[in-house]
Design brief:
438 residues, D-amino Acid Aminotransferase, Chain A, domain 1, 23 strands, Dna Ligase, domain 1, 6-stranded antiparallel sheet, alpha+beta, binds glycine, Rossmann fold, single chain
Length: 438
């Protein structure tokens, strides 16, 4: 079967590898030639992933049977709708359903309409004085969010990127003036985790939980990035997420899929819930309409069910199962020095692929060209996979030492110390629980 993968990051390299492992003949369209995908693909088209017409004509030219959409930006453009109108089924939600990610005001109102568990207090404002008065009345720390996609970089939280509610009001005013609207939410304290599921619009099949490290620098400092690494544990949970928390978060995702179906906009593809585990339990921070990057690299190498079978199940409305190996994983991303604010670009890096293979780690390429030139975003990921998190972390760490160039990474992703810090944070919030072993 000829599969067209749209996107060229680390997430897409992992998707492409899983598709080929499942028997796909792979075709790729992305903005640059990812060296890993270029080796897997039968043909590689260069185009902006949001250029829906170009993607469609590429798909027609190569007689594509099914498409798999990696990033969110083409979903917002309605790429799935256009492909389907041309009889090319696609893994990913159509434009209306993708609003769960692409329109944060829609997502919050939808949750409220359907009484979906894991909600937050929120308001959407288009009027500056109403927004200011509401924040004053509310009194507690808030989160200010642009309504649309910002690559995870536009959200600002009081106590982190914003000093106090005064700064929040100023930022919210800026957004109203720029975008016409802004979303204000209550701040939820806790530890974040990622819950990804496959769905055909009815059935919802969970993947192992993962935890992302969004800050650029060690000890969770520095600017927010797309994610500098992530880990998952062999039991599919996280050390600080109990089975009961897991079930509650799963309930949120299942209720979401059910409510989307009832609204007449069935959601199919991958649904990713970004949750905050608060003192009271899991709260949905946001929906994403695709795999996480890096979190795709935690789950896809563990997939025992061929991704092709899952993809066909999603598009046919006949999704049956997705089984994963019971192993821990640690992803470490190497990014150009200066990322995310002033990344080094245009310089070459050296990757000793043979030595990395010798460590047992997986290697995924992202924002790097076929000649190994850095393009400015997260460039290369290594993934350690083992029976325990400690071992997986050591494997990832040894792989990093075989990559040279103007890059940096977070040594602390998946380390015992950083996991213990997260457990401590939950206990300090007043949660009583016995950490799962990892
Ligand atoms: N790792 C965060 C994201 O994929 O949105």
């Amino acid at each position: 079967m000829r599969i067209l993968l749209v996107g060229g990051g680390g997430r897409e390299h992992a998707i492409g590898e899983a598709l080929v492992r499942g028997g796909a003949e792979l075709y790729v369209v992305s903005g640059h030639r990812n060296p890993g995908l270029a080796r897997l693909a039968k043909d590689y088209g260069l185009a902006r992933e949001t250029d829906v017409e170009k993607v469609l004509s590429y798909a027609k030219k190569f007689g594509i049977d099914m498409a798999f959409i990696g990033p969110e930006a083409p979903l917002r453009r309605g790429i799935v709708d256009v492909l389907e109108e041309n009889d090319i089924p696609a893994v990913g939600p159509n434009r209306e359903a993708a609003k769960l990610e692409t329109d944060k005001a829609f997502a919050r109102a939808f949750m409220e309409r359907h009484d979906i568990p894991g909600r937050k207090i929120f308001r959407v404002f288009d009027d500056v004085s109403e927004m200011r008065a509401w924040i004053d009345d509310f009194g507690k720390p808030v989160v200010v969010k642009p309504i649309g996609l910002t690559g995870g970089k536009g959200v600002k939280v009081v106590g982190y990127q914003l000093m106090d509610n005064e700064e929040a009001k100023a930022y919210a005013e800026e957004l109203i003036r720029k975008d016409g609207r802004v979303l204000i939410e209550e701040r939820t304290d806790g530890v974040e985790f990622t819950f990804q599921v496959f769905t055909d619009g009815k059935r919802v099949i969970p993947m192992p939980l993962a935890q992302d490290y969004p800050h650029a620098y060690e000890d969770d400092r520095g600017p927010i990035t797309g994610g500098m690494g992530s880990y998952s544990c062999s039991n599919g949970l996280l050390p600080f997420v109990t089975k009961e928390d897991y079930e509650r978060a799963f309930e949120t995702l299942k209720a979401t899929v059910e409510a989307m179906r009832k609204e007449g906009t069935p959601y199919k593809g991958i649904l990713y819930g970004q949750f905050m585990l608060s003192k009271e339990g899991p709260v949905l921070i946001e929906y994403n309409a695709r795999f996480g990057d890096p979190e795709a690299m935690n789950v896809l190498p563990l997939l025992k069910t061929p991704l092709m079978e899952i993809a066909e199940g999603i598009v046919d409305g006949n999704l049956r199962k997705a089984e994963f190996e019971s192993k821990a994983t640690v992803v470490k991303y190497l990014a150009p020095k200066g990322y995310p604010t002033k990344p080094v670009k245009g310089v070459r890096v050296e990757v000793d692929e043979g030595a990395i293979a010798g460590t047992g780690a997986r290697l995924y390429y992202a924002s790097i060209d076929e000649d190994f030139t850095l393009l400015g975003s997260r460039a290369i990921a290594v993934v350690g996979i083992a029976g325990s998190l400690d071992k997986a972390e050591r494997i990832a760490e040894s792989a990093v030492s075989h990559i040279r160039g103007e890059l940096f990474y977070r040594r602390d992703v998946g380390t015992r110390e950083s996991v213990e810090k997260r457990i401590r944070l939950m206990k300090e919030l007043g949660r009583e629980f016995e950490p799962n072993s990892w």
